[in-house]
Amino acid sequence: MVGGGIVGLATAWQMLSRRPGIQITVVDAEPAIAGHQTSHNSGVVHAGIYYAPGSLKASLCSRGRGLLKEFCAEHGIPIDHNGKLVVAKSEGELPGLGNLFDRASQNRVPGLRRVDREELRRIEPVADGVAAIHSPDTAVVDFAAVARQLAAEIEKLGGRIRTSWPVSRVRSAADGSIVDGPNGETLRGRITIVCAGLQADRLAAEVAHDVRILPFRGTWYRVTGELADQVRGSIYPVPDPSLPFLGVHVTRRIDGEVWAGPNAFLAFSRHDYRQWAVDARDAVSSLGYTGFWKFAAKNLPTAWTEFSHEVSARAYAKSLKEYVPDVLPGNLERGPMGIRAQAMNHKGQLLDDFLVREADHVLHVLNAPSPAATSSFAIGEYLADTVDRMQA
Ligand SMILES: Cc1cc2nc3c(=O)[nH]c(=O)nc-3n(C[C@H](O)[C@H](O)[C@H](O)COP(=O)(O)OP(=O)(O)OC[C@H]3O[C@@H](n4cnc5c(N)ncnc54)[C@H](O)[C@@H]3O)c2cc1C
Predict the structure, then answer these.
(1) Among 233, 224, 222, which Cα is nearest to 259's?
(2) Cβ(132)–Cβ(98) under 8 Å?
(3) Mean pLDDT estimate for the chain
(4) pTM for this entry
(5) Which end of the chain is least crowded, N or C, by CB within 10 Å?
(6) At what angle do helices 143-156 and 56-75 cross, to 10 degrees?
(7) Pocket around ligand 1: residues whose beta carbon is below 6 Å from it?
(8) Peptide bond into 53 cis (omega under 30)
(9) Domains, the chain, ordered by start
């Protein structure tokens, strides 16, 4: 297994739980597991509102959140069902809210209701809008804590975890696969699963000619003052249906902090969390991709808004004010950032659904953006089923 993020770990755990005694080694390039997307996210356990009915995202999010909750209950990992409101700011957003409600109903999101202005203000007194969808089943958790527990369980079941083990190549051989690691070391296995997040396309050169990982940074602001005390759960806008990002939202996290964000803007490094870090190889990979320029040409106004959110708490507060009217720039303190691994094709389309591709004896997870953390236990089951089929 390449990649010790929540997807790789949940998959290894599912396989070991299904077939005790099989030999599994999880390798990760970093000195500790879960160092990237798994520990740099909003921590929202999504209820499945947004995803196209019938897609992998819809089915695996629905199954995954149940499995995640069971695992957390069994291991004493706190989850808070503090709920979520998706707020229509104006009459013009009501059709979009209605479409979202229909989609969520097809996805059988539990407890979902449409609420009017009065009720939305009762649920979240700091929010305002003309109507909203309320999802009481949306929760928050620390996905990095889940990943650490998974790693402990994997080791209890006899699996191995090797950190500081960067993989340079994964090859198919006649009777299995070969993983090239540091200092000339190799690992051999019957099947290798690659869950490398931001590096997924690079390790999948054989099967991913048509896919490029574009790193999208997302910066949060910490909400401070009395406003933060009044936020109860998550407050989201109606998202732009042409983009997989959910818009600027406010979330009370499992540690009690309230964060606003994340925005979405191209990152020039896939793994460096300093604000304007540039990695020459990563920057060339994005800016040299024709798909990126096609995407950029279609999304210039959005890119400008996202950039202004990146550099200015005032601009951020102005956007947030549309549905959290009392927010002031002084309530927003610059917080951390995450970097999303988002697959794009050469036409400049962001791939919406999860994507897994098979090569001989190798399975590549090529697109596992949000809600992949929520869905990770079900993605693990799905991959374990695929491995069973490959070995049959
Ligand atoms: C800003 C942001 C907000 C998000 N919010 C949410 C949310 O609220 N809810 C939700 O469900 N999801 C959310 N997500 C998405 C979620 O975090 C990811 O979908 C999920 O963590 C993906 O897990 P992963 O294991 O695939 O990737 P990662 O956690 O990135 O793990 C990949 C691992 O592979 C390792 N690796 C990479 N290359 C190599 C190599 N060559 N050799 C060895 N190891 C390698 C890396 O070191 C890393 O540990 C968010 C993501 C971001 C960035």
Answers:
(1) 222
(2) no
(3) 95
(4) 0.97
(5) C
(6) 70
(7) 2-8, 27-30, 35-38, 40-44, 46, 166-167, 195-199, 203, 218, 262, 338-340, 368-374
(8) no
(9) 1-79+138-210+353-392 (3.50.50.60)
